[in-house]
Specification:
Shape: flat
Strand content: 25-35%
Number of domains: 2
CATH superfamily of the largest domain: Cytidine Deaminase, domain 2
Largest sheet: 6 strands, mixed
CATH architecture of the largest domain: 3-Layer(aba) Sandwich
Structural class: alpha/beta
Helix content: 25-40%
Number of strands: 13
Order of helices and strands: HEEEEHEEHHEHHEEHEHEHEE
Length: 273
């Protein structure tokens, strides 16, 4: 599938400048629902940008602690008889993951996850608790390389260049090499697509990597990084207070307002030299 073409669509737009109008064609980001089923049962509907849906489903289920490794997944298939192919996926679990599915289902409300959602289906704050091991400090990155991460992220946003309507996430190894990137109308979805791809390749935990995200750093993004073993999260905008608290507990270096050669470090500054 051509991810770029499926992620945007041309529409007619009228541009008003003063007293004059101009009609033209313009590209907009696509937002459409993806129904994720687990062992045939409806689990969530995620509003997303089409493309890399398999990885999105895997990353989302990993962030919900339904799966922890590729071995937990027997298959990921399009739902039989789907009138719009590509809008429903069925993730078949095996082993211990299948045995604990009922517990995860009971913790959730069956709601549509908007593109702004992180953990919108949770029933209570208590159900957000995770037994994640704090990420150890085993490497450092220079301040100058951290400052270049937003430029790396922008270079990995081809659809954003045409639409201005997508968030992005990028995974960079601590030595500076870019590992993966993803775009989506939801910043949480972009992160899930990356984590799902790494899980699919049996590449977790990502303890030698930095996660860079467009927009702000929310608690949910820090939690996703923690569950994937990512030691550093760099955001273009501000973090929330709960994101900072979560980063402190998880041992994650949290960076915000990364613009130009300036950024703020909110937790565990020892990884930045």
């Amino acid at each position: 599938m051509d991810v770029t073409s499926s992620a945007s669509r041309d529409v007619t737009v009228i541009t008003q400048v003063g007293a004059s109008r101009e009609q033209r064609r313009d590209a907009v980001a696509v937002e459409s629902p993806l129904e994720v089923r687990v062992n045939g049962e409806r689990f969530a509907v995620i509003m997303r940008t089409p493309g890399r849906d398999r990885h999105l489903a895997l990353g989302f289920l990993h962030s919900e602690s339904v799966i922890t490794a590729r071995a937990d997944v027997s298959s990921v298939d399009e739902w039989p008889g789907d009138p719009v192919l590509g809008n429903r996926l069925n993730v078949v679990l095996g082993g211990a993951a299948a045995e604990t599915l009922d517990r995860h289902t009971s913790e959730r409300r069956h709601v549509t996850m908007t593109s702004a959602c992180g953990l919108c289906g949770r029933m209570s704050i208590e159900s957000l608790a995770r037994d994640a091991t704090p990420v150890p400090l085993t490497w450092t990155m220079s301040a100058s390389r951290v400052a270049r991460l937003p430029a790396d992220l922008r270079a990995a946003q081809p659809v954003f260049e045409g639409t201005g309507g997508l968030h992005a996430a990028g995974l960079v190894k601590y030595d500076g090499s870019v590992i993966a990137s993803a775009e989506d109308v939801g910043r949480h979805n972009a992160v899930d697509k990356i984590v799902g791809a790494m899980l699919d390749a049996e590449g977790l935990p990502l303890n030698d990597s930095v996660l860079a995200v467009s927009g702000r750093a929310s608690f949910e993004l820090v939690q996703k990084a923690c569950l994937a073993g990512i030691p550093m999260l760099v955001a273009i905008s501000a973090p929330s207070s709960l994101a900072i608290q979560c980063a402190e507990v998880c041992g994650i270096t949290l960076v915000g307002f990364a613009r130009g050669d300036r950024f703020n470090i909110y937790s565990h500054p020892g990884r930045i030299r």
